[in-house]
Amino acid sequence: MSYLQFPRFAFTGKFQADVSTVNNDPRHFDNEHFEASFQEFQSKDAMNGWWNPTGTAIMRFTDCTVKSLRGLTGQLLTDPQSDPLIGCTVGNSLSRPAGKLVDLDTDWQLASNIYGLEVSLIGTDGLPIMTAAYESNPFRDLWFTRSTAGGDSGASAMFQSVLTNIVWHRDLKSALLDQLRSASERDEVSIRLSTYGYQQRVKKNGVLVPDFGYGILLGNIGPAKASQPRSFILGRRFMPTTSNGAGDLVSGNGIGCFSSFVDEQTGSLNVDLSNALPLGEGYKIAPVSGQPLQFAVLLDESVTQDAELTKDGYIALGNVDQTQNLQDIEGGLQSLPLPGNLLQKVRGKPLAIVQAVDGSGSATVCVREAPHGLEVRADAFTFKLDPNDLVQNRTQTSLYAARYGEPCAHQKLDFWIGSPAPDYSNTPASGKAGATPRALLPVNNVPGGLQLTPERAQTDERGVARIAITGPESMGNPRGYIDGQLYVVSYNFAGGNTAIQQPYDKLAIVVFSTFPARDEPIDLDNPRWEDVQPILQQYANLYPVMSQGLFDFSKQEVADSAAFVMHFVFNKTIDDPDQMPVTRDLSATKRRMLINYFRNVMNRTGKTMDRQVLFGKRCPLRELAGDRGAAPDLTGIATRRIGSKS
User: The organism sits in which domain of life (predicted)?
Assistant: First the structure.
């Protein structure tokens, strides 16, 4: 079971993603060629530090409320009198700083991950009902042209994961919550967050934009089952067979990839349209013009997208809900009843969205389920391996294969690493002479040494294949100024009958560099300032809201005076929102060296509890950006200190 099944509830509102963009250009990692202008806002003719160099990486909910719920029978409820859960607030941690949104790597910004996010459910009386931890999972189904806004403002994506470590603070007397707890396993629930309408313009006509760094959030929570993947719906996958100039898989009338699930127990088709339909003015749904769209069963497997059908070529299941109300109230989820006769018809036959072309019943196929109903997807798909630590240099993942929602047993899968290629997509040129970074472009996917075993995996009776991923015993610095290397691994069914996949459904793997190298005389337990300074300098360059907004730890006297705080944040786990660096791109040995350096400073000076302990145990920026009302002030502070271009 998942957020797409009953019982479930929907919440909508906004999210803040205050990402830092200095590290969006990999050439900015080069300390030798770093320029002060790379920490400034972009201008009309220079990219500088892109559109948000002052970002804190904060990721959190804002103004999110429960709008509707569907119980075990699927009945829609929107009136607070029917269940006290309706109208409650879905918020952030009650005691910790906000979560962080972080790219896997500067060369792979297509699966950003949320770390340290805690989710709370607050009653209309302001008292907590539930708190839980979001299990870190990156977004999926990213596409850049859902709206015409351009850039990240035109993009849309969805996060799916589970909430763990659930604490129930009181009994709300909510029938839906009681059903949800009973239906879930391992004290976890499934959650999906769809995000779009992101405001990436900091100024308009010289005035700060109030919603800079905010976007639209559609959320759904439902039961979680141990047998199901956590990061996607294993069901009936709709896949356009055409792409646009941006590389998005999208139909001719603007519909993207999306998933659905046929629930045999409740006799219903449940469809996630939160990240599927085109957007118009104000990021509202732009209904496809012409006759209403209908969900349908195609009676001939060979019918392709854009084909015209006679009335005998399909069975209509019901209209597609293209209203804004579906997004705002139900989080973009549509449920259609499937009586017994229709339930039988959808088994083993392709689902589609069709549009009538005349009064005779003829229709055009707008988008359909993937050919032959084939789907194969990895649950965990981003990884960081570390040759400096045997345990961290090996991981595993599960891949799920299905045909029309049913497991594909005993199917062989192929894997292949991408060809060596420079990162052209994240290294734009500036129009202003001399403003383009001078560092050489990094090249990915070399050298070899990454191992996936077995080389040709095979699914079991449940359609699941497990593979182990092992990094090389040692890794140099193939990207020079960027630690380690990025490998992008594609996968699919072996042989000629492959599945259509979303462009970024790949395994993205970072392997850290071996440190110290054999020719580096570094004592990890007793490092010198000269050993740690290059790492701190790079972080100070890439994260100016810290180095200029708080203190510049690239200078020894400043870093040493803040030894307690530095030791504290470097010693945090990856899922802690306070961990430093926020980019989470340190190998085990580099982290060990930094922890030991600041520990030695504290031991040498005897000052383990100076005034900086006031920041300790919490994020130093918490007071500057603790709530939505303070966010513009944080931008203003950083803008004044670092400089801004309109």
Answer: Bacteria
Q: Which of 451, 487, 465, 388 is nearest to 105 (CA)?
A: 487
- Give the Cβ contact number of residue 605 at 10 Å: 12
Helix 588-605 to helix 529-542 angle (10° resolution) is 110
Pairing mode, strands 58-70 and 8-18: antiparallel
* Contact status, residue 38 vs residue 26, Cβ threshold 8 Å: no
Query: Would you say the pTM of this structure is higher than 0.90?
Result: yes
Query: Tens digits of per-residue pLDDT, 528-552?
Result: 999 999 999 999 999 999 888 778 9
Look up residue 123 and give its amino acid.
Answer: G
pLDDT in tens, 563-572: 999 999 999 9
Confidence of residue 629 (pLDDT cuts 50, 70, 90): very low
Residue 628 scores a pLDDT above 70: no
Residue with tokens 């062989």: 412
The widest CA-to-CA distance across the chain, in whole angstroms, is 87
Instruction: Note the Cα 592 to chain centre separation in Å.
Output: 28
The SS3 call for residue 468 is strand
- Nearest Cα neighbor of 334 from 349, 354, 317 is 317
Helix H or strand E segment including 535: helix 529-542
Residue 11: closest CA among 272, 270, 331: 331
pLDDT, tens digit, 9 for 90 and up, residues 380-434: 999 999 999 999 999 999 999 999 999 999 999 999 999 999 999 999 999 999 9
**Among 390, 393, 386, 377, residue whose Cα is nearest residue 468:** 393
Question: H or E segment at 317?
Answer: strand 314-319
DSSP character at residue 283 = G
CA distance 481 to 542: 13
Peptide bond between residue 581 and the one before it cis (omega within 30 degrees of 0)? yes
Q: Which residues lie across from 69 on neighbouring strands?
A: 9, 77
In terms of Cβ atoms closer than 10 Å to its own Cβ (0-12, 13-18, 19+), residue 44 is: exposed
